Amino acid sequence: MIQNLVYSKMQHQNLVLSILGLGMVMLAVFSLSIGAFSIPFSNAISILLQQLGIVSGSYTVQETNVLLQIRFPRVLLAMLVGGGLGISGAALQGLFRNPLVEPGLIGVSSGGALFAVVFIVFGASFPWITGLFGSFSLPLFAFVGGLINVLLVYKMANYGGKTDISLLILAGVALTALSSALIGLAIFYADEAAIRNFTFWSLGDVGGANWNKVKIAFLLILAPSCWIMLQYRNLNALALGENEAFHMGVNVQKVKYIVLFMSALVVGVGVSMTGTIGFVGLIVPHLIRLSFGADHRLVLSGAFLLGACLLTGADLLARTLVMPAEMPIGIITAIIGSPFFIWLIINVKKIRT
Amino acid sequence: MLEAKNIHFCINNKPIVDQVSIHLKPGEMTVLLGPNGAGKSTLFRLLSGELLCKQGMVRYNGISISGLKPKELAHLRAVMPQHSTMTFPFQAIEVVMLGLVLSKKKYPSNTVEEVMKATHTWELKNQLYGNLSGGEKQRVQLARVLCQIWDIKSFPRYLLLDEPTSSMDIAQQHHILEIIGQLKHRNIGILAILHDLNLAANYADNAVLLKNGTVIKQGPIRKVMTAENLQRNFDYPIHVETDGPAAPIYVSSLPPNKKSSYTTNFKFA
């Protein structure tokens, strides 16, 4: 009886994950063919297959170049960053036991952005950093910034094993405001060549994607995300409270540090490549929980897949709505996300049950 | 055996638990009684490993608690705290299965079903935990805790309960304490904080009376739960009646301005 129950639940979860995964792949292929330069669907698939050594159909050199050099890395980057934001949102909500937590709200993203800007502006004065870490310097710097903020927020909002929601949000607001001000200051002192623009860091943009960034993102977003996914049992236990999780044999401190460090890494690396993109980490875990239940086995992996879908979709809108110009992607996610956040605040009592 | 030796715990230099020594034998049930603020919950948390004492030591089967990892400790004891809240929409059965979070088995054994049927929570299994009533939540939490130590093991284990039946109706209280009592046959020692003195007197084997952080009396239930000891512990007139060493114990108290028809030797201090 119980075996059947658990078995059917897992079957259901696997089905949901498969559908989300399939949706993500279809959206990606769709996204590859649409844009300022339109590539027919069949040609897009032919070009991808050709990369795998399967020759079929006909396409132009121009189509190949646009697809492989511009659009494909862009879609992959959007998927990785969106997935990373989704899963870190889900994991942080689980850790703080609070549905209002989001990497953007508690200052992780802004901390990452601040350190990224600082590195871009002042990094040239410290050539040994670049000498040591190469092209990983910027993402790693952003990770440190995100980590500092998440640890500060955690320390400020936490006492006696409980997280105070108002303190958490206030600390997040304060740190975000401070980080934004410092970003503004750094940009004020920077020359035009050192930094692109303020919009990038406050509203995000996936347009700067290239294969080098995608490689780093695969390593520093996908791998930590997988590590977070493995924590699903522990996060389930933590949903009851830190003490209860300890009683059941969970090493709470260890889980806390894994989730905080890995989330900061995932978000920091994402921010260093695409700027701060808000609300993905907030909406995505909720949509999964509301539709399919709160078991973190599903919520974590599902949040990654749905986050990837959401950001790919948002990027598609960002570059097609005002063609041939592009909109910052953060505008799209904020337009979807802000009303959702307001709805969440109004209904927070129902969700907290 | 679970033993605490001379344990001491201060908050802001004020001793909450002061030089307490108690021991819990497998196969016996001990109740921890005392007025509000006596230090019951702090002592409970020291025993469960949630708090570490600065002086004295807590030992599980001879091993010091500071040398046990959370996982090892979870195999030796299960804990039910007073209040547990659930942030996310988990179903009752998912909450109960959390008790097995340590076992890496893909499918849980029949433990979950057995425990949920025993605690009358099986019919609630698909409901959201947040929508349950207080008593139902408590039964679900207890089921979760029992799952952790339900399977029979060769070594002695312990069950720590902080007011496990406080939100339940009288029938459920008896039913649940009966189940808890049966765990004694599984080589499990039980420690419960109870506020209902009648339940304590009739289910437990031993009692510990705690006041201002110190133990004022401990031992077999019939020796400890006398009118005199309880009155001293709670600073209130309490009557204890029994018709013999095997007969049930009745504990009662009256509003301060009502005279009892029983004779009592209690004098207000």
Care to describe what's here?
The complex is a heterodimer of chains A (353) and B (269). Helices cover 76% and strands 1% of the residues of chain A. By secondary structure, chain A is an all-alpha fold. Chain A has a two-stranded antiparallel sheet with strand order 1-2. In chain A, a hairpin with a 2-residue loop joins strand 1 (158-159) and strand 2. The longest helix of chain A has 36 residues, at 61-96. Chain B has 269 residues and is of the alpha/beta class. Helix content of chain B is 29%, strand content 26%. In chain B, the strands form 3 sheets. Chain B has a 6-stranded mixed sheet, sandwiched between helices. In chain B, a hairpin with a 6-residue loop joins strand 11 (239-242) and strand 12 (249-252). Chain B starts with a strand and ends in a 17-residue tail after the last strand. The A-B interface holds A 1-3, 5-7, 94, 97-99, 233-234, 236-237, 239-241, 243-244, 246-252, 289, 293-295, 351-353 and B 48-50, 69-71, 73-75, 78-79, 81, 84-91, 93-95, 97-99, 101-102, 107-108, 110, 112-113, 125, 128-131, 145, 148.
Summarize the structure.
The complex is a heterodimer of chains A (353) and B (269). With 353 residues, chain A is an all-alpha fold. Chain A has helices at 2-33, 41-51, 61-96, 108-122, 127-133, 137-157, 165-189, 198-203, 211-229, 232-238, 242-247, 252-274, 280-292, 296-320, 329-346, 348-351, and strands spanning 158-159, 162-163.
Strand percentage of chain B lies at 25-35%
Structural class of chain B: alpha/beta
Q: How many individual helices of chain B? A: 9
Percent helix of chain B: 25-40%
Number of strands of chain A: 2
Q: What is the oligomeric state here?
A: heterodimer
User: Which structural class do you get from the secondary structure elements of chain A?
Assistant: mainly alpha
List SSEs of chain B in N-to-C order. EEEHEEHEHHHEHEHEEHHEE
| Overall average pLDDT of chain B | 89
Spatial shape of chain B: globular
Radius of gyration of chain B: 19 Å
User: How many helices of chain A does DSSP assign?
Assistant: 16
Pair with the most extensive interface?
Answer: A-B, 33 and 40 residues
Report the biggest beta sheet of chain B as strand number plus sense, adding barrel if it closes: 6 strands, mixed
How much β-strand is present in the residues of chain A? Answer: under 5%
State the separation between the terminal residues of chain B, measured CA to CA. 38 Å
Shape summary of chain A: globular
